[in-house]
Design goal:
The protein is of the alpha+beta class. 53% of the residues lie in helices and 19% in strands. The radius of gyration is 31 Å and the shape is elongated.
Length: 389
């Protein structure tokens, strides 16, 4: 029972810890890159064409202002361009951001040098740390941007580096250039349009409901039939694939733990049967049938595995609930977490799924393991059993 209780407690806590860690990673990626939802033109995600825009973002803003569950939103415009310093030239993704970006993303918290963009800034820019190193520039230096405008014209301008950002993600820090949205719209001839409206909601679990409601409202708007709503999973498909791979590898570890527990239970039940072989022989000599003894031992194994699992579920839920409320501090990781704009404590996520998987898996494996030695009773004979053979 102690082995079953320990395995169940550990599985529930580890599964909840893993799911909680996934929630933290998703929130961090959503905050940094995509938001929970984005309103875009049809096929913009696949083609990234500067002409595929949200033509009237103010109309969508009025919808979002009256929608429950929406906590913040902002506008973004994007275009691939060439950025040049005195020495080098690289291809980058230039993003125009609104002052409300600070409410939606963690971008202000990852400015490592210089300052974040202010509402009145003109030709100021934030660039990734790897890009700054490649271009051999620092805050205060000037960069030339060259791209194509929405109307087909050549978009060229000079920006001054106001801040350098570092997210810890190499592709992001290598390709990112942020400039104020009005300056972007003027440079790239956007005529007030944007490429995405980035929306944050109050909970990940509410994303499907709000997405469906927003899609339905946008389809009903006259002249807005070319827009669609995408959630974070569609915007970051590689993130969910990485989570699934990590989850599968975690289940291999959990399976090993359950197998070790199963061998412990098997050994315990085998010893319990061998040590009571004489008693079983006497009971059979007095008229006890192998079927009755088998049912007796099955009842015993059900009681032990069931009680052990219940104790494990109770203990595992209490331990997980405690750390879910107060967080788990891992020494040495708090400074790294602050650097990348993530919580300093890890919070497990206790759910019915983690309790059912953790408790159910140990219960089933434990009972099946106990079943094997129990069925050996049916092969006992009274005289050899009383003789200890």
């Amino acid at each position: 029972m102690c082995a079953i209780t320990f395995a169940t407690t550990l599985l529930i806590f580890m599964l909840s810890f893993q799911f909680g860690n996934y929630q933290t990673i998703i929130r961090a990626m959503v905050k940094l890159r995509t938001g929970h939802l984005q309103v875009q033109a049809e096929r913009y995600l696949e083609k990234r064409d500067i002409r595929m825009v949200v033509p009237d973002p103010a109309k969508i803003s009025r919808l979002l202002d009256g929608m429950s569950g929406v906590t913040a939103y902002t506008y973004r415009a994007n275009n691939f361009s060439l950025v040049s310093s005195k020495e080098r030239t690289y291809g980058v993704l230039v993003t125009g951001i609104d002052p409300r970006e600070a409410q939606v993303s963690s971008l202000p918290r990852i400015v490592r040098k210089g300052q974040y963009l202010s509402p009145g800034d003109g030709n100021q820019a934030l660039i990734g740390s790897i890009l700054a190193k490649n271009l051999q520039v620092d805050t205060g230096d000037e960069l030339a941007l060259l791209g194509q405008g929405r109307d087909g014209s050549i978009a060229a301008t000079i920006v001054k580096v106001k801040g350098i950002i570092s997210s810890g993600q190499d592709d992001f820090d290598r390709l990112s250039v942020y400039i104020p949205l009005p300056f972007f719209q003027d440079t790239y001839s956007m005529a007030g349009a944007v490429h995405a409206m980035v929306v944050n909601v109050d909970s990940l679990s509410h994303v499907p409901r709000i997405k469906e409601a927003l899609n339905a409202v946008i389809r009903s708007l006259p002249g807005e039939g070319g827009l669609r709503v995408l959630d974070w999973n569609e915007l970051l498909p590689g993130l969910m694939q990485a989570i699934k791979i990590d989850l599968y590898s975690g289940f291999i570890f959990y399976l090993i733990l359950v197998v070790v527990t199963a061998f412990s239970i098997l050994n315990t039940f085998l010893m319990a049967i061998f040590e009571r072989k004489r008693e079983f022989g006497v009971m059979m000599a007095l008229g006890g049938t192998p079927g009755r003894l088998t049912r007796l031992l099955l009842l015993e194994s059900i009681f032990m595995t069931g009680l052990g699992s219940l104790l494990g579920i109770l203990l595992g839920s209490l331990v997980t609930w405690y750390f879910q409320s107060y967080g788990l501090h891992i020494p040495g990781l708090d400074e790294i977490a602050r650097y990348y704009g993530m919580p300093e404590r890890v919070f497990p996520d206790l759910s019915i799924f983690s309790v059912a998987i953790g408790g159910g898996l140990v219960l089933v494996i434990s009972f099946l393991t106990a079943l094997f030695p129990t069925l050996r009773i049916r092969r006992l004979r009274p005289v050899p059993a009383m003789a200890g053979r």
